Amino acid sequence: MSRLPLRTRLTLVFAGAMALVLAATGFVLVNRLASSLDHTVDQGLRARAADVSALVQQADSGLRSAPRGTAERGDFAQVLDSRGRVFDQTPGLDQERLLTLAQLRSARRGSLLVPRTGDGGEAVRLLATPVNAQGQKLVVVVGASLAGRDQALFDLRKELLLGGPFALLFASLIGYFVAGAALRPVERMRSRADAISARDLSERLPVPRARDEISALGNTLNQLLGRIETVRTRERRFVADASHELRTPLALVRAEVELALESPRTEASLEAALRSVGEEADRLSQLAEDLLLLARVDEGVLTLRPETIGLGEVIGGIATRFERRARDAGRRIDVDETRLVVDVDRPRLEQALGNLIENALRHGSGTIRVTTVERGARAEIHVTDEGGGFPTDFQARAFERFSRADEARSGPGAGLGLAIVRTVAEAHDGEAGAANREGGGADVWLSVPLAEPVPQRRDVRTRV
Ligand SMILES: Nc1ncnc2c1ncn2[C@@H]1O[C@H](COP(=O)(O)OP(=O)(O)OP(=O)(O)O)[C@@H](O)[C@H]1O
Ligand SMILES: [Mg+2]
After folding, report:
1. Which helix (DSSP H) or strand (DSSP E) does residue 344 occupy?
2. Is residue 40 within 8 Å of residue 152, measured between CB atoms?
3. Are 129 and 111 a contacting pair, CB within 8 Å?
4. Interatomic CA distance for residues 57 and 132, integer angstroms
5. Which residues contact 130 (CB under 8 A, 6 or more apart)?
6. Does an H or E element contain 193, and which?
7. SS3 132
């Protein structure tokens, strides 16, 4: 059954149920008609029994002279005496007793209904009632033929047996068409889904206008397609951007090497070429690491190893790392003292903070300040500078992968730094954001979860 098409299965179930309903209806109808006919026959019998009893009480005879028409209609009567002999009867009956001796005995005690009798011949229904007349105890038996009743029932059964299958066939056909109509939108969606290829995910399934389960399913599937399309587009852009970013340093390395091989060079220029190649190799490996981190996040396999640590310690360490570069550029890194203790994956937080300070050094100017604020269950770490800040039309896209403001395009960098900052913050159930300060300069922040404060710990304050 489960291998049959759904439409056929629905029709078969419907037809089965319909057959049961029709059979039950037919059964009830036949029984109702039978009992109603029996009731009518019984009423007739009782009325006639009363008539005949009255007749017998008035005169010794009278049945013999009853009009023949009565007998022809199938009605007849017989009066039996106490010994069971025929005392009187309507014409057309032979001299045989209509009741058996046992029935006669029972009828003498009270009315007796013999629902169906007539050995071999026509079926009849009898009603026997005792009556005291002519100085003795007589039994009046009235009878009616059941031929009419039986014929009516036979006709009804015949009609039901002939009409039932037709009704069943008709209902099944309707069921078949209704099931087909109901499943048509599903088939339409299926064939469209079949045609949607992995290359072009912009197509959507046709959703029926009715607001039913099928249209709900269609909408849900379309939303799913939309999400798959978004992910695919992002993936493609990621791969395209990544290869583009990899190409630039590789081309530089190649050019540098070719130049060094072509012309005879002094030792100093060769060393400079090698240094430049080394720098590009560093950038390449940094890029590869950034890409790997983002790919891990996308795959959902980035695991954090959080530890409880003083935030001041982390910030101080990172600031020290950038100390020389800042000094060389004539810049300063100010770190506010903080006693906040956080639950973080230290290398990841250091990576994110490093990206922020690197950005402030590279894209901003003036003093770089690292401050912390306690906000609910989180610590917010802000890195501010005194440069030009984010271009307003770019600010909203700053955290997207490979996004760089026009001014930054000429310089080094792939545009992954802030994407990683946000990824690290979100991996810690935190957030990241960027704004321009009122007095000028950028304010970029991320938040990480606070741990229980450790009062004894000495926070590090670094001033570079
Ligand atoms: N402190 C800042 N001041 C002004 N603009 C900034 C600042 N930080 C970031 N930006 C802008 O945001 C862009 C994105 O920064 P992000 O760190 O993601 O990339 P990047 O620094 O260009 O490259 P990468 O960090 O991958 O080496 C930068 O290119 C720059 O235009
Ligand atoms: Mg950066």
Report:
1. strand 341-344
2. no
3. yes
4. 7
5. 107, 108, 109, 110, 111, 137, 138, 139, 140
6. helix 147-195
7. strand
Residues in CB range of 55: below 8 A, 6 or more apart: 62, 63
Q: Which ligand is nearest to the CA of 369?
A: 1
Query: C-alpha distances in angstroms, 52 versus 62, 78, 146, 239, 439?
Result: 9, 9, 20, 110, 126
Which domains, from first to last, does the chain contain? 6-151 (3.30.450.20), 213-299 (1.10.287.130), 307-449 (3.30.565.10)
Indicate the pairing of strand 124-133 with strand 112-117.
antiparallel
221-276 tens-digit pLDDT: 999 999 999 988 888 888 888 888 888 889 889 988 888 888 777 888 888 889 98
- Residues with C-beta less than 6 Å from any ligand 1 atom: 355, 359-360, 363-364, 385, 387, 389-390, 398, 403-405, 408, 413-419, 442
Q: 282 CA distance to ligand 2 centroid (A)?
A: 15
Pocket-testing residue among 293, 361, 363, ligand 1, by greatest number of atoms within 8 A of Cβ = 363
Contact between residue 286 and residue 434 where contact means Cβ atoms under 8 Å apart:
no
- Within 13 Å and on the Cβ side, how many CA atoms surround 192? 17
Q: Which tokens belong to 185?
A: 């939108």
Given this model, what pLDDT does residue 462 score?
47
The pLDDT tens digits of the residues spanning 67-95 come to: 554 555 578 999 999 888 998 888 888 88
Residue 423 CA to ligand 2 centre (angstroms): 14
Q: Kindly give the pairing relationship between strand 75-80 and strand 136-145.
A: antiparallel
Query: Nearest residue CA, atom 17 of ligand 1?
Result: 417
Report helix angle 346-363 to 311-328, nearest 10.
Answer: 30
H-state helical runs in 265-340: 267-299, 311-328
Alpha carbon of 387 to ligand 2 centroid (Å): 15
Pocket test for ligand 1, best of 292, 418, 444 (most atoms within 8 A of CB): 418
In whole angstroms, give the CA distance from residue 225 to residue 193: 10
Taking a C-beta distance cutoff of 8 angstroms, is the pair 293, 426 a contact?
no
Helix axes 213-262, 267-299, angle to 10 degrees: 170
The Å distance, Cα 408 to ligand 1 centre, comes to 7
Torsion of CA 68, 70, 73, 78, to 10 degrees: -100
Q: Is 283's pLDDT higher than 90?
A: no
Whole-number Å distance between alpha carbons of 402 and 420: 11
pLDDT band for 120, please (50, 70, 90 cuts): low
Q: Whose CA is nearest to atom 5 of ligand 1?
A: 390
Burial class (CB in 10 A: 0-12, 13-18, 19+), 239: exposed
